[in-house]
Specification:
- The complex is a heterodimer.
- Chain A is an all-alpha fold.
- Chain A contains 28 helices and four strands.
- Chain A has four domains: about 260 residues, no CATH class; about 80 residues; about 200 residues, no CATH class; about 80 residues, no CATH class.
- In chain A, the strands form two sheets. A two-stranded antiparallel sheet of chain A has the order 1-2. A two-stranded antiparallel sheet of chain A has the order 3-4.
- In chain A, β1 and β2 form a beta hairpin.
- Chain A is globular.
- By secondary structure, chain B is of the alpha/beta class.
- Chain B folds into two domains: about 220 residues, 3-Layer(aba) Sandwich (Rossmann fold), CATH 3.40.50; about 50 residues.
- Chain B has a six-stranded mixed sheet with strand order 6-7-8-3-9-10, sandwiched between helices. A four-stranded antiparallel sheet of chain B has the order 2-1-4-5.
- In chain B, β7, α7 and β8 form a beta-alpha-beta unit.
- In chain B, α4 crosses α5 and α4 runs parallel beside α6.
- Classes of the chains: A mainly alpha, B alpha/beta.
- At the A-B interface, α1 and α10 of A face α1 and α4 of B.
Chain lengths: ~675, ~290
């Protein structure tokens, strides 16, 4: 194992990426711990801890003060905001204290609930899965009677246990080491020389696995250790030798652990998960080539992300990434339906992890033999084609075929098509009516539109009056039938009012524009979609250009390129292909979203002033199309920056795999972090 | 010690790389000759278990090498055709790494590595990173890894590639010494290397054994086919249809042409002794380059 470690230790980039991951984790977690977007930091809640009665009194005093500022000292906004902040802080503290104090009542409620459900027979007979599962969970919760959570502040633990970005970074380590010790070595044909040695097969396989597990363990200790220290220092905890149910939000934990014990259990299971992922990633690296390896790792991560939100407990329990969500598994007492037999989920997770390890090792050993036994000697005869003399075509072949640009473009098209067909627009009555009014109000303000709105306002008033007349007849069935059309008509008022408010807000220079489509592009969900598209585009550009920019140095062709009289022409062709590919990927990544939103809601008045959109402040002098154009220019600028970064990394590293590793760390992980927090 | 190759075939899709090859090898040096794509590297990779034969089997002392596994692998040393190395390892680290993979104990490895590094002139460069080694230095280092655990079967694919004449001789002598009591299989395009040290030479063409014998046996069957002719420069091309020209030297204002005659020629010329290279050219000379 010493020499396998030596390979890593001698790789400055590996060390650099390792340090970067540790730094990124510390920076991300610290910023989450010190987050003050609510107006205060979590650590400040601790200072507000006091007896619940005292806090209740304080809150009513604050409420009085705020009211007096609002109604008597109008204008003293500063003081009012300070009181508001204090009110929120004290409320947070009170909620936490009450949760701990009310635990016995909460537990009793749960048990009663369970008993009632069992008795009413709504969930099946005595032998049904549901009733048996309820009986078992009853026993589990019954064992908790007598536990008295302590009233204290455990914000550090609370954040530590629910923080998951570190999981991604920890999983990156075995991926990184597998890329270096397995994929890179295979690309340089090292198995050809190691495989025939006495210990060059299974023994070497397990030695490398040992290194990967050790690095994963080291990374785990360092990353989670940093998190624990940061959460303890920046947020803090009271004594940890209290029931874990004392921690805010941990009330559902069906185990009689102390916080310290829960920490040990949590770390043990998290470590088991990290090592399982390490074994699986390592084994996969023996089975798959570089590109399928990276793509399948990305695909499994993406699928796992969706599987975690699945309502099916089996899917959630088998989800390899979801297995790392330890806090979730401990925060409930759930049973899986195994042919009618209730299986406790938690022990099953260990079985699932064991199965992943076994399956991974079997596949890995099989892949090790198969791949090592088949050095790149296979020849494939391509159909005869006339050899051309065009640098443009050869550079295109390098980019689209050798560096897999074509395949990945197809993958992107598939992803975008899937995104388009799974997009779910939100149509409510309000939206429907708002759209109807918008069709009429579209364009500049005028008297006719004003009169139209006024007429409809009168109409709605009349409907209300008529409806009021029916009130004297009670709410019998006949009356309900009679008033239904009126109620339906009144349901349109929200859509009307939305259109009316927008119309009234327009200045004389502004025009009415139906805004829902544009809102869908620029709201939080829209920005998240944008970011996801950016991540997809960046990932593809990284993979393709890591190969394309290192094609010459990796193959040794660079010497011929330097000597070629057409070196400069070749560089121009490379640049041209790069620009075209970035444009194509940029267009495929971002433009389908416009089409999707346009199809769902429509994007009318595209060439009218952006100032007509009232949900955000856009400059007046530019059209909506101009804004969208500039936004896309910015996106292309970002993508170009990433490609430029890959270019410089490729010049420095000269090999595709290290460039990919560095690129993932520098470009993809920070984007994922932003995506996770947005 | 006996290595038997029994009816071994290997195909890659429709392409037949080895076609029912059978050989019986005991201690000695075997030269494997053939043009590119003849199946030499495929055969070697099957012998070192880097490849699995499509059919047939390889037996070591009567036992299938697949079932022998580690027991077989600890007896082989292999130098592949391509230079494989870890660029950030020093020469010494690389050798210790390979020694650990071969299961050598550290003390023995230390002594052997030192001896070989000195013998092949790499001792002074032992702490340099491999990425700073020249091609010839790397080739010698790779040869050391192949021989350092005193393997009973040594398989060398182009062992002298990239070496200068002195280094080639040093390597040749080293292989010659090892071949006294081991099975050594060398594949090379430098026919002279094989001619000097191989006890038995195998010609491989399109996956089949074309010739098999000692250099003397092979050369004996070739007598009378090599001739020298003194001709004017403008007449050299007239000789070409009659055979393969293997040398042209200026002599007394004329050209002395050495030719392997493949067709009857009206003039006798001066006879010359045949070499393995002549046989090679005879068998493969007309194949496209």
């Amino acid at each position: 194992m010493r020499f396998e470690f030596l390979k890593l230790m001698k790789n400055r980039w590996f060390l650099g990426v390792f340090v970067f991951l540790v730094g990124l984790n510390a920076a991300a977690f610290s910023s989450a711990l010190c987050d003050s977007s609510k107006g205060y930091r979590m650590a400040e809640i601790r200072g507000e801890y006091a007896p619940a009665e005292q806090l209740t009194k304080d809150l009513s005093v604050i409420d009085r003060e705020m009211r007096s500022i609002l109604f008597e000292n109008e204008g003293d906004l500063g003081r009012w905001l300070e009181y508001q902040r204090l009110e929120e802080l004290k409320t947070e503290a009170l909620v936490r204290i009450n949760e701990a104090r009310n635990y016995p009542a909460y537990l009793e409620g749960q048990l009663n609930d369970n008993r009632i459900k069992q008795k009413i027979g709504l969930f099946g007979d005595e032998n049904s899965f549901n009733v048996r599962a309820m009986k078992r969970s009853y026993k589990v919760y019954e064992a908790l009677v007598g536990i008295a959570p302590a009233v204290g502040f455990y914000g550090g633990a609370e954040r530590f246990f629910s923080w998951r970005f570190t999981d991604i970074l920890t999983a990156c380590l075995p991926l990184l080491v597998s890329l270096l010790l397995v994929v890179t070595e295979r690309r340089m044909n090292a198995p050809l020389i190691t495989h025939p040695t006495m210990l060059g097969q299974e023994t070497l396989f397990f030695r490398k696995l040992g290194v990967i597990l050790t690095v994963s363990l080291g990374g785990f200790v360092l990353l989670y250790g940093t998190n624990w220290v940061l959460s303890s220092v920046l947020v803090g905890n009271d004594s940890l030798n209290v029931p874990v149910q004392s921690v805010y939000g941990f009330i559902n934990i069906p185990y009689p652990f102390t916080v310290t014990q829960y920490l040990c259990v949590f770390l043990a299971q998290k470590l088991a998960w990290v090592l399982t992922i390490a074994v699986v990633l390592y084994s996969l690296s023996y089975v798959l080539r570089l590109l399928p390896y990276l793509l399948s790792a990305a695909a499994v991560s993406a699928l796992s992300f969706y599987a975690e939100t699945s309502g099916n407990l089996w899917i959630r329990s088998l989800n390899p990434i979801g297995l790392g969500n330890v806090h979730r598994w401990y925060n409930a007492c759930e049973y899986l339906n195994f042919f009618g037999i209730p299986l406790r989920q938690l022990p099953l997770l260990w079985v699932v992890m064991g199965a992943y390890v076994l399956a991974g090792l079997t596949a890995g050993l099989f892949g090790m033999r198969k791949r090592s036994l088949s050095p790149d000697q296979k020849t494939r005869t391509l159909p005869h084609r006339k050899a051309g003399h065009s640098l443009f075509l050869y550079e295109g072949k390098k980019l689209y075929l050798l560096s897999k640009g074509a395949v990945l473009t197809l993958v992107l098209i598939g992803l975008q098509a899937a995104g388009h067909f799974t997009y779910q627009p939100y149509y409510s009555t309000t939206e429907f009516v708002y759209k109807e009014y918008s069709d009429v109000l579209e364009g500049p303000k005028n008297d006719a539109k004003k009169a139209f709105l006024e007429d409809d306002r009168k109409h709605f008033d009349e409907v209300r009056e008529e409806l009021a007349k029916y009130a004297q007849y009670g709410d019998g069935e006949a009356v309900s039938l009679l008033i239904q059309p009126l109620v339906n008509e009144l349901a349109r008022t929200e859509g009307y009012e939305k259109a009316l408010r927008q119309y009234e807000r327009l200045s004389d220079t502004q025009e009415y524009v139906y805004q829902t489509g544009y809102e869908a592009l620029f709201d939080r969900k829209g920005i998240r979609r944008d970011l996801l598209n950016l991540i997809k585009a960046a990932g593809i550009l990284l993979i393709v250009f890591a190969g394309y920019f290192t094609a010459e140095s990796e193959t040794g062709m660079s010497i011929y390129h330097r000597l070629s009289v057409h070196a400069s022409a070749d560089r121009k062709q490379k640049l041209l292909h790069t620009v075209l590919f970035v444009l194509a990927i940029g267009a495929l990544s971002f433009l389908p979203d416009y089409y999707t939103v346009h199809k769902a809601y429509g994007l009318p008045s595209l060439f009218s002033s952006a100032g007509n959109l009232l949900f955000q402040t856009f400059p007046e002098g530019i059209s909506i199309f101009g804004v969208l154009f500039l936004v896309n220019c910015f996106r292309l600028f970002v993508l170009s920056g990433i490609v430029l970064g890959v270019f410089f990394l490729a010049r420095k590293r000269k090999k595709a795999v290290p460039v990919m590793i560095a690129g993932i760390s520098v470009f993809i992980l920070p984007l994922l972090l932003v995506y996770a927090f947005l | 010690m006996r290595l038997e190759i029994r009816d071994v075939s290997k195909s890659y899709g429709r392409e037949q790389a080895l076609n029912h090859v059978s050989l019986d090898l005991t201690e000695g040096i075997y030269g494997l000759l053939g043009p590119n794509g003849a199946g030499k590297s495929t055969l070697m990779n099957i012998l070192v278990q880097n490849l699995e034969a499509s059919s047939g089997e390889v037996l070591f002392n009567g036992k299938n090498i697949r079932t022998l596994g580690k027991e077989y692998r600890k007896r082989i040393g292999y130098l592949p055709q391509t230079q494989i190395y870890y660029p950030d390892f020093t020469g010494l680290e690389f050798l210790y790494y390979m020694a650990s993979l071969k299961g050598m104990d550290k003390k023995k490895a230390e002594t052997v590595i030192r001896e070989y590094l000195i013998e092949l002139g790499l001792w002074d460069d032992r702490n340099k990173k491999l990425k700073h080694y020249s091609g010839g230095m790397r080739q010698r280092l790779l040869l050391i890894q192949a021989v350092m655990d005193d393997p009973e079967i040594l398989i060398l694919d182009e062992p002298t590639a990239g070496m200068d004449p002195w280094q080639r001789i040093a390597v040749r002598n080293l292989i010659g010494k090892i071949g006294l009591d081991k099975i050594v299989i060398i594949s090379t395009h430098v026919v002279q290397d094989v001619e000097q040290i191989a006890g038995r030479i195998l010609f491989l063409s399109k996956g089949k054994i074309l010739r098999d014998g000692t250099p003397e046996e092979l050369e004996a069957g070739f007598e009378g086919k090599i001739r020298f002719f003194l001709v004017k420069k403008e007449n050299i091309s007239k000789l070409e249809p009659f055979g393969i020209i293997t040398g042209i030297v200026r002599k007394n204002g004329l050209a002395e042409v050495r030719i392997i005659l493949q067709r009857p020629f009206p003039y006798r010329g001066t006879p010359s002794a045949a070499t393995i290279e002549d046989l090679y050219l005879w068998d493969f000379g007309k194949e496209p380059l």
